Structures are given as structure tokens and as C-alpha cells.
């Protein structure tokens, strides 16, 4: 991962397009590119099968949030810590970690103007 000045995003938030998100992920989280590509293929297939763009819209929103978090090293590190705690902690720790993950995701959605239904 690219380093940044303390508290500064690694890159600007990219446009909510497949191309811009792919480029951003290639810069800040290249290990996520195979998952990005696989999920894009699935969303495109679902959209074609249902003649509905909603799967592609969900894909763009999900990966925009991912990039928003990953481009901020401190937040990304905390997110990973919480994911680990949710997976390995006792029930109380897992609930607390899930709550922290939810707050990070809520903040990312709000920052991007993505309103969940």
C-alpha cells in the first residue's frame, strides 16, 4: 500500500465508475483486484439476466465504499482490526467489533452520499 502523510488519504476519492474504481484499487489495494473483477462479472450477469441495472449500482456503491475506507490508512487498519476481532473474539467482543464496523461503513456511506435502503 502507498504511504501518505499522517491522516491524509492516499489518493482522492475516485469517480463512481468501474474504470476509476479499478484504477484506484490497483493503486491502494491490488490484492483486491481479482475480487473486484469477479464481483463485476457477477453484477453484469445479474443485470443482463434481469434487465435491471440495480446489481451494477450496488456493485459501484460497494466498491466506492471499499475504496473510501482503503484510501485512508488509519481507518483501513482499524477496519481490519475490527474484522479480526469479530472473527476471533468472544461474543461480547464480536458484537462490539460489529458495531465499530457498522459505524465505519455508515460514515463512508454518508461521506459518499450513498443512502442505504
Describe what this molecule looks like in 3D.
- It is a single chain.
- The protein has a domain at 33-112.
- The mean pLDDT is 93.
- The chain is built from five helices and no strands.
- With 117 residues, the protein is mostly helical.
- Helix 3 packs across helix 5.
- The chain is globular, with a radius of gyration of 15 Å.
- InterPro entries: DUF6247.
Give the C-alpha Rg: 15 Å
Q: What is the rounded distance between the termini? A: 33 Å
Number of helices: 5
Order of helices and strands: HHHHH
Structural class, by secondary structure, is mainly alpha
Instruction: Name the average pLDDT.
Output: 93
Largest sheet: none
Please give the number of β-strands.
0
Helicity range: over 70%
How would you sum up the global shape? globular
Strand content: under 5%
Would you identify the regions where 5 or more consecutive residues have pLDDT less than 50? Answer: none
Summary?
The protein is built from 5 helices and no strands. By secondary structure, it is mostly helical.
List the helices and strands and how they pair.
Layout: H1 18-28, H2 33-50, H3 54-70, H4 73-88, H5 91-112
Pfam family, one: DUF6247
List descriptors.
single chain, about 120 residues, mainly alpha, about 70% helix
Amino acid at each position: 500500500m502507498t504511504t501518505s502523510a499522517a491522516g491524509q488519504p492516499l489518493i482522492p476519492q475516485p469517480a463512481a465508475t468501474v474504470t476509476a474504481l479499478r484504477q484506484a484499487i490497483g493503486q491502494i489495494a491490488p490484492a483486491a483486484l481479482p475480487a473486484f473483477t469477479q464481483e463485476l462479472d457477477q453484477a453484469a450477469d445479474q443485470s443482463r439476466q434481469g434487465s435491471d441495472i440495480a446489481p451494477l449500482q450496488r456493485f459501484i456503491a460497494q466498491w466506492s465504499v471499499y475504496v473510501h475506507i482503503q484510501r485512508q490508512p488509519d481507518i483501513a487498519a482499524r477496519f481490519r482490526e475490527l474484522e479480526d476481532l469479530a472473527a476471533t473474539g468472544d461474543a461480547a467482543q464480536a458484537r462490539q467489533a460489529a458495531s465499530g464496523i457498522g459505524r465505519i461503513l455508515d460514515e463512508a456511506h454518508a461521506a459518499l452520499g450513498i443512502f442505504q435502503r
